[in-house]
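go over this record:
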Amino acid sequence: MTPFSSSPAASTSNSVDEPEVLFDSQGSRRIITLNRPKSLNACTLNMEWDESKEVDLVIIKAAGDKAFCAGGDAIAVVTSAKDALAGGKSTVHRDFFKEEFVMNHLINTFSKPYLAFADGIVFGGGLGLAVIGSFCIVTERTLLSMPETQLGLFPDIGAGYFLSRLKTLQMEFRISQRIALGPDLHEGCRAILIDKDRNPKWNPARLEDVTKDKVDGYFTALPENEELKL
């Protein structure tokens, strides 16, 4: 079974010489590397690290430069479920989610610092490996996504909880309200969508005329009865 993939492409079997997950020890640090090809099964070694007095930090990262983790193998899960419905004996659809959720709980309750380098693509179950631990480092190339709802699933791995509680959501809501009540959105819609002259008249017209106070105004708190409540 290949629950997690470091590539958004369909998973394939690795050769014996190319392990899917690498484990390394550097002093009191333990490092997990998703070795570009394909999977991360339930990390039973993490349980040992959690109890070990010789470990004070766990780091998880990915080999390659495209993805941290592109999430679960949805095709394998669906294929297994169809087999079970037809009277087959496949249990991947059950085992996958059981192992994933046990691992997510372990990451979230891990007693040692857990640091994820979430560089590149971080989709679906990949967020569970990155976001719900102690620390998550992102880069300018990090691309986050929870595509489960588009597949007819739901935002699992606790995403419905942590996404709805991000402070940045409240900040983005404030910005959206300032922009909605300002002249530029109205002018932009006129120029691009209504008149389609593609010549918006911004106010102020020049970037140099935008004051610091005006910028700060987009981020200030809204009146209490207008704030986003999470």
Notes: Residues 124 and 150 are 11 Å apart (CA to CA). The first strand starts at residue 4 and ends at 5. Strands lie at 4-5, 21-26, 29-34, 57-62, 67-69, 71-72, 114-118, 121-123, 135-138, 143-145.
